[in-house]
Write a structure and sequence with these properties.
Length: 750
C-alpha cells in the first residue's frame, strides 16, 4: 500500500483548507519546509495511520493535528495508489505498514523522566521487549508447541489411514481395466477435487469395463503393417531355374572326366577335386609341385570352365537364392501371433487366418518345388540334358500369380485392421479416462469424503494453533537473536554517522568509551548527537524489527548536525533508497543545503511547504535551480564568454569557484576532514585524454583559497597578483572538472 494523495480539507494545523499533499509512489519524495511550516504534521498523519504505532501513542495525535485556533473538527482524506480512501477517524480499521522517524520517535526512544527542577532521575534508550515479556512468550511457545505436536501427530495418523483405505480401493478398481496410472497420483487428484467429485453422479461402470476388456490388448504396437515379398526377384529366380532345366549339352566332355576320375579311389578323387579349386600358377596348393601335365586336374579344370560346369554353379547359386522367401515365411508366423492377440477386434479373423495359412503353405510348397527341380537337375545324369518334360517339372502346382493375388488381398485386410487399431487405441484410452474420471474417482471420493472432511476441520484448527506457535516462537527467537543483530547494526551505524565514541550495550544502555553513561547522557549529549543516535537505532530497526514495510517517513534526520555529519546522513539515506527501492520513501527537512544536496543531482520528486502570514501551502518544486546551480551557471557563463572579465565578476569568482569545488568534494568525500584537498588529489589522477595539467590545477586552488570561505553571498574586493587570464582560467577549469565528474549538471543547465 502506497499513499498517492493526502487531502487536508479542513482545520489541519497551519495548512490552508483544501491543501493537496501530492506524493510520488515510484520515486523518493524530498519535502522542504522551514520550522513551523507543517512538516511534522505530515509525518504525524503517517504516524497515525501506521499499524506499528501503539494506540496509546495515538491518543493525542488527532488533537495535535487540529488547528488550535478553530473549534471545528479537522477533516483529512487519504487516497492510496488505487484511489481507495483511508478513514483517519477509524484507527482500529487502519493497518498500514508505515514506519516513521520524527521528534515523537526520538522522545519515545529516549525516555526522560523529570525529577525536581531541571534534573533527571533516569534516561535510557528503550528496548521493545523486556525480560518479563520474553519469559512469558517462552512459556506460551512451549505450551502451544506441545499441544500442536500432539494434535499434528493424530492428524498425521488419520491421514495415513485414509490414504491406505483409498489406495486399496483404487488398486482393486484399476485391475479391472488395467489402468497404468500411478495409484498415488490418482489419490492426489481425488483429494484435490474431492468436493466436486463427491457431488458427481457416478455412472455404470460395467459397460465401460467390457469395452475396455475388448480393446485392452490393442495399442500402436499391435499394428500389423504389410507382408513384404520380392515377387519380382522370385519370378527372376524361377525364370533362371527354367532356363537351367531346358539346358542341353554334348556329353563328350562329361564322359571324359568321368573316365579320368574313375581311375582313382573316392578319397583321392575328393582330395583332387577340392585342390583344383585353389590352383594358382599351375602349382599344387598343397605340395607346390608343377601340375601342368596332370590329366585329371586339367580335365576337371576344363569341366569347370565348360558351360556344363557353369550350369552346375548357377544351379547351386539359385538354390541359395530361394532362401529369400524364408524372411516372408517367418514374417507370416509373427503376424499370425499378432492376429491371435487382437482377434477381439477383427470381424473376419478366421477368414484372414485361413488366407495367411494358405499363403504360408503356398510359399513353402513353391520353395520345395523349386528346390526339388534344382536338385533333380544337379544329378550328374540330368545336368547335360533338357528336363522340362520330366514329371518333377511338369507337375508344379503353385503359380506365382496366385501367390501375388493372395498377397494383395491379405495386405488390403491388414491395412483395414491397422486403421481399426488406430481408432481402437484412441478409443480405449478415452474409455480408460472415462472410467477413471466418472467411475473410479467419484466412487472413492464418496467413500472417504466424511473422513476427509473431519481431517480438514482438524487441520484448520491446527493451522490456527500453528500460527500461534509460530508467532510465539518468532517473538521468542526474534527477541534473542534479532536483538543482538540490531545492537550490532546500531553500533556500526553510529560509526558510519561519525558518532565514534558512543556504543549501545546488550541492555540498550549508552556506553561512552566502554563506560556506562546511561544515567548521565542527557547532560553529555548534544541535540545533534541525540538525533544521530536515535536515527542509527531507527535504521537498524527498519532492518530487524519490521518484516513488511510499504512506506518509510523520515522527518529532519539532520537536526542540529554540522556540515560534515549532514553528509554522513545523506550517505545513509541514499543507501536506504537503494535497499528499499520498491518502497515509498518520504524525507522531510528544514535544511535548505540538505535539500539542495538531493536536488542538484538526483531525479527524485521534490516538494516545498511555504508559510505565508501563518498559513502553509504545499506544492511540487519543479525548479532545478539551486544555490549551487546558480553559482555554477555564473562560472560557466564567464568560462564560455568571449568578453573581458569585469571587476564585479572578480569579486565573487573566488567564492563561487570554491563553493562549487567544495560542494563536489563533500559529495564525493563526505567523511573527509578536508574535502577540498581530497577532491584535488582525485582530479590529479584523472587519466588521459581528460587529465588536467598540475600547473593549472595548482593555480586554480591558489585562487579559490584566497580569502574565501565559500559562503552563500561572500564577495571579496582586494588587490591581487592574479591577472584577468588567471580568473578566466579558474572558471574554465572549474567547468571542466564539473563536466568530468558530473556532466549531467551541465546538460540540464538552462
Amino acid at each position: 500500500m502506497k499513499i498517492k494523495n493526502i487531502k487536508l480539507n479542513k482545520n489541519v494545523t497551519t495548512f490552508e483548507n483544501d491543501t493537496n499533499v501530492e506524493l510520488s509512489i515510484d520515486k523518493p519524495n524530498i519535502i522542504y519546509g522551514q520550522n513551523g511550516s507543517g512538516k511534522t504534521t505530515i509525518s504525524r498523519i503517517f504516524q497515525y495511520i501506521s499499524k506499528y504505532v501503539l494506540d496509546e501513542d495515538k491518543v493525542n495525535t488527532l488533537e495535535n493535528l487540529k488547528n488550535a485556533d478553530s473549534e471545528e473538527n479537522l477533516e483529512i482524506e487519504i487516497l492510496d495508489y488505487k484511489e481507495e480512501r483511508i478513514n483517519i477517524n477509524e484507527p482500529n480499521s487502519i493497518k498500514n505498514n508505515i514506519v516513521v522517524f520524527n521528534q515523537d520517535y526520538m522522545k519515545k526512544k529516549m525516555q526522560i523522566e523529570k525529577f525536581d527542577t531541571n534534573k533527571f532521575k533516569s534516561s535510557k534508550i528503550t528496548q521493545e521487549t523486556g525480560e518479563d515479556l520474553k519469559n512469558e512468550l517462552k512459556e506460551i511457545y512451549l505450551k502451544l508447541n506441545g499441544e500442536y505436536k500432539k494434535e499434528s501427530e493424530q492428524i498425521k495418523q488419520l491421514k495415513i489411514k485414509l490414504k491406505d483405505e483409498a489406495l486399496k480401493t483404487i488398486d482393486e478398481w484399476k485391475k479391472k481395466v488395467d489402468i497404468r496410472k500411478n495409484s498415488n497420483e490418482i489419490f492426489k487428484e481425488i483429494i484435490e477435487n474431492i468436493e466436486k467429485l463427491n457431488s458427481v453422479q457416478q455412472i455404470e461402470a460395467e459397460d465401460i469395463i467390457q469395452k475396455i476388456i475388448k480393446y485392452k490388448n490393442v495399442d500402436e504396437s499391435s499394428k500389423i503393417g504389410s507382408i513384404t515379398l520380392d515377387l519380382e526377384k522370385i519370378k527372376a529366380i524361377k525364370e533362371n531355374i527354367h532356363k537351367c532345366v531346358i539346358y542341353n549339352e554334348d556329353t563328350t566332355q562329361l564322359a571324359y572326366i568321368k573316365r579320368l576320375l574313375g581311375q582313382i579311389s573316392s578319397d583321392e578323387k575328393e582330395w583332387i577335386l577340392l585342390g583344383t579349386k585353389y590352383i594358382k600358377n599351375n602349382e599344387c596348393p598343397f605340395c607346390k609341385s608343377n601340375i601342368d601335365n596332370n590329366d585329371i586336374v586339367n580335365g576337371y579344370k576344363m569341366y569347370q570352365n565348360s558351360k556344363l560346369g557353369q550350369l552346375e554353379q548357377k544351379l547351386k547359386f539359385l538354390l541359395e537364392q530361394l532362401n529369400v522367401m524364408d524372411t516372408t515365411i517367418k514374417q507370416i508366423s509373427i503376424i499370425k501371433n499378432k492376429i491371435n492377440n487382437i482377434s477381439t477386434i477383427i470381424d473376419n479373423n478366421e477368414e484372414i487366418s485361413n488366407k495367411l495359412n494358405d499363403l504360408e503353405e503356398q510359399l513353402i510348397k513353391f520353395k520345395e518345388e523349386q528346390i526339388n527341380i534344382i536338385q533333380y537337375k544337379l544329378d550328374s545324369d540330368n545336368l547335360h540334358r533338357d528336363c522340362s518334360s520330366e514329371k518333377i517339372y511338369t507337375s508344379q502346382n503353385i503359380k506365382l500369380e496366385d501367390i501375388e493375388k493372395l498377397l494383395k488381398e491379405i495386405n488390403v485386410n491388414f491395412s483395414q485392421i491397422d486403421a481399426k487399431i488406430e481408432t481402437s487405441s484412441k478409443q480405449v484410452g478415452n474409455l480408460r479416462n472415462q472410467y477413471l474420471n466418472e467411475c473410479l474417482q467419484p466412487y472413492v471420493a464418496k467413500n472417504i469424503y466424511e473422513s476427509y472432511k473431519k481431517i480438514k476441520q482438524d487441520e484448520e484448527e491446527l493451522v490456527v494453533k500453528d500460527a500461534k506457535v509460530k508467532e510465539a516462537k518468532k517473538n521468542y527467537e526474534d527477541d534473542l537473536v534479532k536483538k543482538q543483530l540490531l545492537i550490532k547494526d546500531v553500533n556500526r551505524l553510529l560509526d558510519d554517522l561519525g558518532i565514534h565514541k558512543y556504543k549501545i550495550d546488550t541492555n540498550f544502555h549508552l556506553m561512552y568509551k566502554r563506560k556506562d553513561v546511561n544515567d548521565k547522557f542527557v547532560n553529555m549529549l548534544s541535540e545533534g548527537e541525540r538525533t544521530s543516535i536515535t536515527f542509527a537505532l531507527f535504521l537498524a530497526e527498519l532492518k530487524w524489527l519490521y518484516e513488511d514495510i510499504d512506506i518509510i517517513v523520515i522527518d529532519d534526520p539532520i537536526s542540529s548536525l554540522d556540515y560534515m555529519h549532514i553528509y554522513n546522513v545523506m550517505s545513509k539515506i541514499k543507501e536506504l533508497f537503494s535497499m528499499y527501492s520498491d518502497k515509498q520513501i518520504i524525507i522531510l527537512t528544514h535544511n535548505n543545503i540538505f535539500y539542495n544536496m538531493f536536488k542538484y543531482r538526483n531525479p527524485y520528486a521534490y516538494y516545498k511547504i511555504s508559510n505565508t502570514e501563518g498559513k502553509s501551502n504545499y506544492k511540487e518544486d519543479r525548479r532545478d535551480k539551486t544555490l549551487y546551480m546558480e553559482k555554477l551557471k555564473d562560472i560557466v557563463y564567464i568560462a564560455d564568454s568571449t568578453e573581458d572579465i569585469t571587476e564585479e565578476q572578480k569579486k565573487y569568482i573566488f567564492n563561487y569557484c570554491r563553493y562549487i569545488l567544495e560542494t563536489l568534494g563533500l559529495f564525493f568525500f563526505p567523511n573527509s576532514n578536508d574535502a577540498l584537498n581530497s577532491l584535488q588529489r582525485m582530479i590529479e589522477k584523472i587519466p588521459e585524454p581528460d587529465n588536467i595539467s598540475k600547473t593549472k590545477l595548482d593555480k586554480l586552488f591558489m585562487v579559490v583559497n584566497t580569502g574565501s570561505h565559500a559562503t552563500d553571498v561572500e564577495i571579496i574586493d582586494l588587490e591581487s597578483e592574479y591577472t584577468d587570464t588567471d580568473y578566466k582560467d579558474a572558471c574554465k577549469l572549474t567547468k571542466r572538472i564539473v563536466k568530468y565528474l558530473c556532466k549531467e549538471q551541465l546538460e540540464n543547465m538552462e
